[in-house]
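Possible regression after last week's pipeline update?

I re-ran a chain I had predicted before the update to compare outputs. Posting the input and the new output here so someone can diff against the archived version. Not blocking, just want to make sure nothing changed silently.
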Amino acid sequence: MTEPVITTLLDTDLYKYTMMQAVLHQHPAAEVEYRFRCRTPNVDFSRCFDDIGREIDHLCSLQLSDDELDYLAGLDYLKPDFIHFLRLFRLDRRFVYLECIDGRLELAIRGPWLHTILFEVPLLAIISEVYCRHHHARPDWQHARTKLQQKIALVAHAEGSEGFRFSDFGTRRRFSARWHQEVVQTFASELPEQFSGTSNLALSRRIGRPPMGTMAHEFLQAFQALGPRLIDSQKAALDAWVREYRGRLGIALTDVVGMDAFLRDFDLYFAKLFDGLRHDSGDPVIWTEKALAHYRKLKIDPCSKRLVYSDALTVDKALDLYRRFAGQCRPAFGIGTHLTNDVVDDKPLSMVIKMTRCNGQAVAKLSDSPGKAMCEDAGYLTYLSHVFGVPAPAVNQG
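New output (post-update):
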């Protein structure tokens, strides 16, 4: 019998738990909706649909063990009351709405934010692995391991990159959980200095490294509905993060309404409080130049700040960015699908689950990359663009 895709609630990214704690303490009654979108055209999920449903049923049977709770309690930014809450926590299948219409996978998550926030990453991992099982049942593992060794050699022998550090951010679109584990353990063993760790809690625990991550887009998106005014939503979200973590986990995400609008809100107060910024869409060189100029304008030495790159990176791209900016800031890199789903020659599925509503109101991400905006309400997207003074993107309604 095939092992379930998800066998522990720790098989997810750290930032899901850090955001979940903030939700428990500050917005426990918030109601949200998430939607799935597969950006890869003409994908037929018909053969996978029943297996995806069974995997979701299994996911909703899981609870954290005492040993797993002890591990989380050892992360000193997670508080005792949150650990006690997790002791009782289980994902509720009733919040997931799943259909397959003419081969198209329709998936929505609706319910309390506190009780739905952990669905996104394991659901994407389930969809990715089940799809790979059906379409690539007998992969050439030797070929995959050869490509993994090529990545290791590229990092190990790269000139001008002595301080280069990277992490695994590849849980949600991985080929399989077993391959993900092998990749992370191989990097940890063969590149102990360059490999900082992984965003995945279960694998961080396994390799004995601190988990990587802070916040995701949904945290800032939600404050479009939770904040006092829409124009102040980013500042409200950043303030909420500071209140929760008091200087810990200090990497801010910049592209929910675009880098230019973000920097208008990221004043001296926030620039001093946060350790750095994360890039997740748009041209990384332009983004970096804007970040460096902003810090210098505020009389802050950019070399004291961490700039984290996480948008569709490959090892080559990460090394190029490091060589370009290493003397001007503290670059770090989160590499995802290129590490965990580079098994077969076919391109991995490009898919996301994004928050689309909070407390009944539409919310959206205005990405710095064309085609990444996702919203059910074209009128709201236009209004959001107008409020923040940025161009309105084309609407993708899923």
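Follow-up from reviewer: compared with the archived run. The first strand starts at residue 31 and ends at 38. Marking as no regression found.
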